[in-house]
Design brief:
The chain has 172 residues and is of the alpha+beta class. 47% of the residues lie in helices and 16% in strands. It folds into three domains: 51 residues, no CATH class; 38 residues, no CATH class; 61 residues, no CATH class. It comes from Rhynchospora pubera.
């Protein structure tokens, strides 16, 4: 349901009434409503000039900077924060040259940093800064791939964690 402000229904105190209506696409519309309001035909037949309380942004209003800020979120949450549908966000990403949502890649690098912080006695402090720089570079240019050295490091850390977990399971 959408919260809609009724511009014509006035009380005796001349205050605007607020009410909930069915989604606009289910109403018979007089004018095409693009998510910003317009004239609608209420189910009881009264033409009302309505305005959405929380208007959705136009797809073209989504700039690369706005989208890139949301790469650290899953695409569903990002679309909810940007107040657009997932399909609209994907379409706009393709228009902006973003072929794939970067959440999993960035999350993988964030997990790598957390793991290196847990294993700080192995001397990973000099590498953590490089991985953070790589995350920022990916946010600026989503088509970048993870560097080969970072992939190797990630694989080595994963293997060592697996071996430690495996040996602890066998000994207990």
């Amino acid at each position: 349901m959408y919260a809609i402000r009724d511009m014509q229904a006035q009380t005796s105190m001349d205050s605007t009434m607020f009410f909930l209506m069915q989604p606009l696409h289910q109403l018979n519309t007089v004018d095409a409503v693009d998510g910003r309001g317009g004239k609608t035909l209420h189910p009881n037949g009264v033409v009302r000039d309505v305005q959405l309380l929380y208007p959705r942004p136009n797809r073209n209003e989504l700039k690369f900077e706005h989208v890139a800020q949301k790469f650290s979120l899953p695409i569903k949450e990002a679309s909810r924060d940007l107040k657009v549908s997932v399909s609209t966000l994907k379409f706009r990403c393709r228009e902006l040259g973003i072929s794939k949502w970067q959440y999993r890649k960035i999350q993988s690098l964030e997990t790598l940093i957390e793991t290196m912080l847990e294993l700080e006695h192995f001397g990973f402090h000099h590498v953590i800064g490089k991985v953070r720089e790589e995350i920022e570079a990916i946010k600026l240019n989503p088509s970048l791939e993870i560097k080969y050295e970072t992939e190797r490091l990630r694989q080595e850390i994963y293997d060592s964690k697996y071996k430690r977990r495996r040996t602890s399971e066998l000994t207990s």
